[in-house]
């Protein structure tokens, strides 16, 4: 490796007997954040009345910290459970006339595609899926999408695609959408902590998860809304903040929701700071690149070319003939026999393992996987 990496598994409570190579799905919450969550829950259950009287101020403090981490305007930043919820809020807010197009790509996350289909059905619109080759460069991505923006009511694009681990050129896509006077919704589920200031491009709506690379508690995500849409943007649950004129506060109070993850989330940002994340992130890039090469060599395949790969994920091609029709069963077998947690993805007629890297990983993790996986896939 070009960079010497000192793994820090001690910061997590992950089972040391398991190879944790799929941080990109559900993340992993650091030990100190878990301890804070336990303390907050103890406090809440000791006196629920006091807890719910004070929770609004705590949420404001947390929300401001998370907005600062994204380097975005706090007046347009709201807390939501996940990026899929953020996309749903955006589609609920935007005017989608009958006969118009909701444009997305064939890299879109499944739940986001379902949301587009639901709103298209409800409003008499059409979902248009733009095919983007896996290896497409930034200029090609923009050109292919721009061809489909006529009569579009909204463009939905990934910042970092989930299934194909590919970075899309968001600045250029925002410009192209606005040139066509089309609102753009950016699914930035994987972007926080992997892209600096991920919401800075000026999208109409941007949403991203904090439970992935920032390692915050699950069900913690952010929604950034451009000023023109803030007054119309409403939370998915109608509650006591319905008539609050301030957009972020409208999203804060959702009845007896469990606010502990949102309040504790900034603690995980402190963990990233202690890890010196600006230095750690390129180290993880070098780690996942080398780990992917080791696994590809063991499988007799290669690391997929995706044009612009994200900092901490890589796709390793599976050998031809591997049957993923019972994908969950195969993952359970790998989990049981190899003590390894991985995920499979597919695109067009190709199948991959999507590898992740975070601060608890070392090259030995990928080497151990490479020793046993070829036998199970054979």
TrEMBL record:
Domain Aminotransferase class V residues, every copy: 59-305
Pfam families assigned to the protein according to its UniProt record, in alphabetical order: Aminotran_5
Record flagged with keyword Nucleotide-binding: no
InterPro entries per UniProt: Aminotrans_V_dom, PyrdxlP-dep_Trfase, PyrdxlP-dep_Trfase_major, PyrdxlP-dep_Trfase_small
Keywords: Pyridoxal phosphate
Protein name, entry field: Isopenicillin-N epimerase
UniProt lineage: Bacteria, Bacillati, Actinomycetota, Actinomycetes, Propionibacteriales
């Amino acid at each position: 490796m070009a960079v010497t990496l000192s793994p820090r598994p001690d910061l997590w409570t992950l089972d040391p007997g398991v190879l944790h190579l799929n941080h990109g799905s559900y993340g992993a919450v650091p030990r100190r954040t878990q301890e804070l969550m336990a303390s907050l829950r103890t406090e809440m259950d000791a006196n629920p009345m006091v807890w719910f009287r004070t929770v609004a101020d705590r949420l404001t403090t947390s929300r401001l910290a998370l907005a600062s981490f994204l380097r975005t305007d706090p007046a347009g930043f709201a807390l939501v459970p996940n990026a899929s919820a953020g996309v749903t809020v955006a589609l609920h807010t935007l005017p989608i006339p009958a006969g118009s197009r909701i444009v997305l790509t064939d890299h879109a996350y499944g739940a986001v595609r379902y949301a587009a289909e639901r709103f298209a059905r409800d409003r008499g619109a059409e979902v248009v899926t733009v095919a983007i080759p896996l290896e497409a460069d930034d200029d090609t991505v923009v050109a292919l999408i721009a061809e489909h923006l006529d009569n579009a009511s909204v463009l939905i694009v990934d910042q970092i695609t989930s299934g194909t681990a590919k970075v899309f050129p968001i600045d250029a896509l925002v410009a192209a959408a606005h040139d066509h006077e089309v609102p753009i919704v950016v699914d930035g589920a994987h972007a926080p902590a992997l892209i600096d200031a991920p919401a800075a491009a000026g999208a109409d709506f941007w949403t991203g998860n904090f439970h992935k690379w920032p390692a915050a508690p699950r069900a913690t995500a952010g929604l950034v809304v451009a000023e023109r849409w803030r007054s119309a943007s409403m939370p998915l649950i109608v509650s006591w903040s319905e008539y609050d004129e301030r957009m972020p506060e409208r999203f804060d109070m959702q009845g007896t929701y469990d606010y502990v993850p949102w309040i504790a989330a900034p603690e995980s940002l402190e963990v990233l700071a202690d890890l010196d994340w600006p230095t750690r992130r390129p180290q993880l890039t070098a780690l996942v690149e080398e780990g992917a090469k080791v696994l590809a060599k063991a499988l007799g395949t290669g690391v997929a070319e995706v044009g612009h790969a994200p900092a901490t994920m890589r796709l390793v091609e599976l050998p031809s003939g591997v049957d993923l029709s019972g994908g969950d069963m195969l993952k359970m077998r790998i989990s049981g026999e190899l003590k390894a947690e991985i995920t499979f993805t597919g695109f067009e007629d190709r199948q991959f393992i999507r590898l992740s890297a975070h601060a608890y990983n070392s090259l030995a993790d990928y080497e151990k996987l490479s020793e046993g996986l070829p036998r199970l896939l054979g």
